[in-house]
Amino acid sequence: MTPRGLISPNHRSIRKYYENLRALQDQGVLNEMNVRRPFESLLADAAKLKGWTLVPELSAVAGGGPSAMGV
Questions:
Q1: How far apart are CA 39 and CA 45, in angstroms?
Q2: Residue-level pLDDT at 70
Q3: Range of the structural domain that residue 52 is part of
Q4: 21-68 pLDDT, tens digit each
Q5: Helix (H/G/I), strand (E/B), else coil: 68
Q6: In angstroms, rounded to a whole number, what is the distance separating the alpha carbons of residues 71 and 60?
Q7: What does the alpha-carbon distance between residue 24 and residue 16 come to, in Å, rounded to a whole number?
Q8: What is the number of structural domains in the chain?
Q9: CA 3 – CA 34 distance, rounded (Å)
């Protein structure tokens, strides 16, 4: 971590993200939908450093009621 609490450009999570992007590019599938998972992993790793939890997709209905559970 840098002094201001930022992730340095050579942090393991950043390197892993770029490795995943290179692998996708090598396969010819570097587009928005394919980049989604590596970016989500990067965000989750960064969140853990702050003690946070990434919630990738939150339903428009919250509160634990039947609609929030898909019932």
A1: 10
A2: 56
A3: 1-71
A4: 999 999 999 899 999 999 999 999 999 999 999 998 877 776 665 555
A5: coil
A6: 14
A7: 12
A8: 1
A9: 33
